[in-house]
Design brief:
Keywords: Membrane, Transmembrane, Transmembrane helix. The protein has one domain. 86% of the residues lie in helices and 0% in strands. The radius of gyration is 16 Å and the shape is elongated.
């Protein structure tokens, strides 16, 4: 494999992961703002789901990375870990469930789209 081919692969990985994490950091809050209609409910959900921003960043990194690597099963692992990790909080505070689902789906859709696009691009190089 030539240096140019390796550099192109590395560029796809770096740009894909950065776009997934960085772009999702703007997209997911935008989706949540448009999905939530009651400010007091949103405030309670944010308090319950503390650490959600960092979890979302790591989620997008892992989903996009696993798809770029050609390991789509990794997405199921990420979803399972996130769901099991949040289950106790969601059980005690059902009001946070909608925010959790909407944020997770927005994050997964964004990161999966970039991972699939990057994987397709890697295959074409």
């Amino acid at each position: 494999m030539s240096f140019a081919a390796v550099a192109a692969d590395v560029a796809v990985w770096v740009v894909g992961l950065a776009a997934s994490v960085g772009g999702g950091a703007g997209l997911v809050p935008w989706v949540l703002r448009h999905a939530e209609r009651e400010p007091q409910v949103a405030a309670e959900a944010v308090a319950v789901l503390r650490g959600g921003t960092w979890i979302g960043l790591l989620e997008r990194l892992c989903v996009t990375g696993s798809l770029l690597a050609g390991y789509p099963e990794g997405v199921a692992v990420v979803v399972a870990v996130k769901g099991l990790g949040r289950f106790p909080e969601l059980r005690e505070h059902p009001v946070a469930s909608e925010r959790f689902v909407v944020g997770t789906l927005a994050s997964l859709a964004w990161s999966a789209a970039l991972g699939i696009a990057g994987h397709t691009l890697l295959g074409a190089l």
